[in-house]
Amino acid sequence: MLRIWRATVNTRNGLAFAIRSEQAVREEIFALALAVPLAWLVGATAMRRFELVAAVAFVLDGVLIGAGDLRFLAWAMAFSAGALVVTTLPILPLSLGIGWVWAALGVLMATRCVFLLVRYRGDEWAVVGATRAVRGARAGVA
User: Fold this and answer.
1) pLDDT in tens, 3-46
2) H-type helices in 20-95, by residue range?
3) Which distant-in-sequence residues (6+ apart) come within 8 Å of 56 by Cβ?
4) Which pTM does this prediction carry?
5) What is the DSSP-derived secondary structure letter of residue 123?
6) CA of 137: how far to CAs of 2, 34, 89, 134, 140, in Å?
7) Where are the domains of the chain?
């Protein structure tokens, strides 16, 4: 039964395709042949790169949260959010589209990743003991 249904649907689609003008068919085939692989390649590649950058940022977030370096994380996120705002401002006025929104989110994640990698490579986040000393505070007074 399923084979009969598939044959019927394929025949109907084939006839509908053949009825159209040759020029319309050529334009459609050209557009699909060009757009689909290009959209998949650009979209999939960009998203994979964003995911890798985001994964590094999330891991370093966890490491620095575990070390109690929350003040730095707050400042790093504030600057990264500023980068996000700057990259998203022209999207609506220029009608740039959803790809630019994803690119702006990629900028956010890349900015966070850079800040966190720089902090991780230094030694200021690594604290021995249960408490973190506050700059300018006297010993024993929080």
Assistant:
1) 665 655 555 555 555 555 555 655 655 565 566 565 655 666 66
2) 22-66, 70-88, 91-94
3) 113, 116, 117
4) 0.60
5) S
6) 77, 64, 40, 6, 8
7) 2-121
